[in-house]
Amino acid sequence: MDDPPEQTAGEARLLALAKTGDLDAFEQLVALHERRIFALALRLTGSVEDAKDATQETFIRLHRKIAQIDSSRGAGPWLYSVTVNACRDIGRGRQRSRLIAVEDLASLAPTDPVANPEGLYADRQREERLRSVLHRLPEKERAALLLREMEGLSTGEVARILGSSEATVRSQICTARLKLRKLLRGKL
Amino acid sequence: MTCAGFEDRIARYVGGDLAPEEAALVEQHLRSCAECAELARGLEEDRVWLASRPPETADVDFAAMRREIRREIARPRWGWKWLAAAAAILLAVALTTTLRRTPVPRKVMAPVVAHAVAEAPRRPLTPAKHAIRKRRTPAPQAEPDSPVEIRIATRDPNVTIILVHEYKGVMQ
Hints:
The structure holds two protein chains of two kinds. Chain A has helices at residues 5-19, 23-45, 48-65, 76-94, 102-107, 117-134, 139-150, 155-162, 166-184. By secondary structure, chain A is mainly α. Chain A has a domain at 1-96: Rna Polymerase Sigma Factor, Chain: A (Orthogonal Bundle), CATH 1.10.1740. In chain A, helix 3 (48-65) crosses helix 4 (76-94) and helix 8 packs across helix 9 (166-184). By secondary structure, chain B is of the alpha/beta class. In chain B, strands 1, 2, 3, 4 and 5 form a five-stranded mixed sheet that branches. The longest helix of chain B is centred in the middle third of the chain and has 22 residues, at 80-101. Chain B is built from five helices and five strands; from the N terminus they run H-H-H-H-H-E-E-E-E-E. At the A-B interface, helix 2, helix 3, helix 6, helix 7 and helix 9 of A face helix 1, helix 3 and helix 4 of B.
């Protein structure tokens, strides 16, 4: 999660402005993180609608707690942590199947579609399969794996975000990788 | 079938979570074990896929989402401070109502002194007789519906028996 220096500086400036109540700066801050947060929420929840709800909730909480954000670290780690919690809350609240709705899948399209339609189809199928098996992983293992692999965070950062020890997170990620592989091969 | 005991290490190796010397051991094993090598390849594929394909969607209207967030944060919230204030007001109202309903203070009657008989009675008492002799006092006059409290002092100054009775009507 190494952002370019100019982005970090820009984010620190936006955070400082947003802390003074500047809503335009806050909106720019949201725009800076929204896709990444939505993507994480989508893989955590497996549903576009749930991911939208979790993303909104995350940024509303950011606005409430913005004074607590360390401008030098940026909002990223805090946002990941809140996203994981928001997705967990939504999951518990809905009490329904975590499998992706067919209409949700139909609406998914990569932001930068490749020219090869066969490749795109294969990618979609793979994405669909991946997300459906991700939801068979326990919640904590899924979150740890996604933060590590998808967001490229270090084990220490993931541990801080999830409020666990590094050893626990390392074990969760390792177990999740193996389970995911077995699920993808239909062996679980 | 992969080699038992190597699965975990392979999963950690793929994620770069092993110390160099342990990673070297795994690499050595992977060169000699086709099953484990296949597992390592599969794990690496999954890792690359997860890392390289953020599932963003072109159809999600992020601008609309931002507008919704802005609407939400502009809406006044009933935070805990407001709830605490509301609870304090409710408590004050409840207390006021309760205090207004409190009845007039109970009338405390003059104590009725009782002496325990245990101390050398002049004549023996039969078991059926009451163990305590009371000095009769004039019947207290109480207001209708007001409770009457009767205190019976014993020889022990630390022990007082208190009887509370509510009369309906005037005491005779």
